[in-house]
Amino acid sequence: MRQRLDHGPVDYQVARLNEVWSDHRARTLVTGALIAWLKPDSILDPACGDGSIVFEATRLHRAEYLSLCDISQPNVDRLMALGPPYPGQSMHVGRLDIAEAIRRPVPGGDKWDIIVLTEILEHLEDPDEIVRLARERATRVVASSPLMRPGQIDPNPEHLWMFDNEGYAEMLADAGWKLQQFTFLQFPTIYDFGVWVCS
């Protein structure tokens, strides 16, 4: 199931830290571990927020090249001040929209090893376009989303879409992604969550 929501525009020019919410922190740890499990050399997170997912992945497996992009200037400023997790590690930080970030040249190759699409597609007018573009530009994608429970009405005014597992998986498959791993996370919060690893 996939449902279009009737929510208005959102101001994303605020800094958001995953550590503020315990369920976000748990999802960061799980998603970071899944990315590290794939042992990528290059990672692009085109809507990285505070960068915590890529930093967690890099803590477990040092990727050679990181690209962290976001439309929020406060997030970009914070990441630029932090710098790369390891001395000598190559890290690009930029204020770009998601499509611009995905279209950037890939260092040392034609495709990113991994593009991270965590909890972003439900915010976009056309998530299918981004999933297709990622398929052209990456070997793998790691994506996550809140999952709709039966009869649920999404209270988050920032979400333009709600998915259940089947609806999200179908969107990925329609773009040519093949599922490698699905992780279901259930918290005592308003949402369940899914994390998909695809190649």
Quickly list its features:
199 residues; alpha/beta; Rossmann fold; seven-stranded mixed beta sheet; two-stranded antiparallel sheet; 27% strand; globular
Helices and strands in order:
Blueprint: E1 2-4, H1 22-37, E2 42-45, H2 52-60, E3 65-70, H3 73-82, E4 90-95, H4 98-103, E5 112-118, H5 127-137, E6 138-147, E7 161-163, H6 165-174, E8 179-186, E9 192-198
Parallel strand pairs: 2-3, 2-5, 3-4, 5-6
Antiparallel strand pairs: 1-7, 6-9, 8-9
Helix pairs in contact: 1-2
* Radius of gyration based on Cα positions: 16 Å
Q: Could you give a short account of the major beta sheet?
A: 7 strands, mixed
Helix and strand sequence: EHEHEHEHEHEEHEE
Number of DSSP helices? 6
Number of strands: 9
Task: Please report the first level of CATH classification, the CATH class.
Answer: Alpha Beta
**Into which percent range does the helicity of residues fall?**
25-40%
